[in-house]
Amino acid sequence: MDNLTPEQRRKNMQNIRSEGTQPERLLAKELRRRKIYFAKHVKTIIGKPDFVFRRKRVVVFVDSDFWHGHRTRCVMPKSNCGCWEQKIVRNKQRDKQVTRELKESGWMVIRLWERDIQRNLSKSIKKLICVL
């Protein structure tokens, strides 16, 4: 059972960011430090990637462990499990579809997990630089 009222839960959910998350800020700061130029959240590209490197035709998505269903780090809430499971399954399906469409359009797609960026930023940057 949820320990928040519906109004409290609604406000909580409204405060969850889809842009400007801590992992995104860490990655952006390091890219700027290395003088690697990028665009953020380009709405004209399907899936609205977190980072876009237009000249190299590379897009980067920073996926949340919970919202994108990391196989070991996604901890399901104890209440309303069925709804949450459906939501995360739909998110994963949409991620696959977006990745497929971008690749078909000639983009290289990189997906980084939030925890990997937070725990080992240099490894995530190295992975990105190898592609660029």
Task: Please provide a written account of the structure.
This protein is an alpha+beta fold. The protein has one domain: VSR Endonuclease (Endonuclease, Chain A), CATH 3.40.960.10. It has five helices and four strands; from the N terminus they run ααβββαβαα. It has a four-stranded mixed sheet, sandwiched between helices. A hairpin with a 4-residue loop joins strand 2 (51-53) and strand 3. The chain is globular, with a radius of gyration of 16 Å.
In terms of topology, how is this protein built?
Layout: H1 6-14, H2 22-33, E1 39-40, E2 51-53, E3 58-63, H3 81-104, E4 108-113, H4 114-119, H5 121-131
Q: How many separate domains make up the residues?
A: 1
CATH superfamily descriptor: VSR Endonuclease
Report low-confidence residues grouped into runs of 5 or more.
none
Query: Class in CATH?
Result: Alpha Beta
CATH topology: Endonuclease, Chain A
Task: Name the CATH architecture.
Answer: 3-Layer(aba) Sandwich
What's a concise summary of this model?
With 132 residues, the chain is α+β, with helices and mostly antiparallel strands. The protein is built from 5 helices and 4 strands; from the N terminus they run H-H-E-E-E-H-E-H-H.
Name a few traits of the molecule.
single chain; 132 residues; alpha+beta; 4-stranded mixed sheet; Endonuclease, Chain A; 4 strands
